[in-house]
Amino acid sequence: MCVICLWAGGGGEEGIRVGIRATARTTALLLAVVFCSSALQRLFPHPWTLLLRVNRRYLGVSTAVSHGYHLALLVALYALWVSEPPSILTLAGGGFVSLMLLFLAATSTNASQRRLGANWRRLHLLGIWSAWVVFAGAYFPQALDDPLAGTISIALLISVGLRVWASGRTVRPHSWEGLQK
Ligand code: HEM
Questions:
Q1: Domain of 124?
Q2: For 112-163, what is the HEC assignment?
Q3: What pLDDT is stored for residue 174 in this prediction?
Q4: What was the pLDDT predicted at 83?
Q5: Of the residues 81, 82, 98, 139, which should be mutated to test ligand 1's pocket, given the most ligand atoms within 8 Å of the CB?
Q6: d(CA 50, CA 38)
Q7: How many domains, the chain?
Q8: What percent of the chain stands above pLDDT 70?
Q9: Best of 1, 6, 17, 21 to mutate for ligand 1, by most ligand atoms within 8 A of CB?
Q10: What are 67-126's pLDDT values in tens digits?
């Protein structure tokens, strides 16, 4: 996708910017799915929702990988074309969320989960919510003018709605046998 963006944008600064925007969108959509995968399965037990839930760790890592491309393209943009540094707000907010996403990907293992205990869930909740807030802040204001921003905003809102709706529901046991039913 990044290669296509670079090519579509003529290979220069515009191509890099198209890639930055595209990777922000893929990260946001993946995050929306990860955000509600557990809630979806609790609300609508079905092999497809179970598949999402069982694989949410991989979807989470994919979110971080997609964001890694966003950062790599940003490095190229600032190294090659833009001499003015990003604003302090972008650096602080974006930097914090980027570090959180890196941390979430690095600790997406059973061993880290055991080692960090209850803090694992707290840190993952903080990371995923802070990314959600940054995306909401970026896409909600453009939702009515830009259909893509509108679609992502709806996905972000649905993901939160599902989480709220499912909160308090007991966790349904999940297993690979369940997938085969
Ligand atoms: C230090 C880290 C970051 C920097 C310096 C940064 C910088 C930028 C820049 C310069 C753009 C505009 C590209 C263009 O339109 O030409 C952009 C777009 C964007 N970034 Fe980042 N970013 C960072 C991290 C993040 C993080 C952590 C998120 C979300 C979790 C994020 C989400 C977005 C979004 C949603 C857009 C707008 C895409 C669109 O208009 O469709 N960024 N970023």
A1: 2-180
A2: HHHHHCHHHHHHHHHHHHHHHHHHHHHHHHHCCCCHHHHHHHHHHHHHHHHH
A3: 54
A4: 86
A5: 98
A6: 8
A7: 1
A8: 93
A9: 21
A10: 999 999 999 999 998 889 899 999 999 999 999 999 999 999 999 999 999 999 999 999
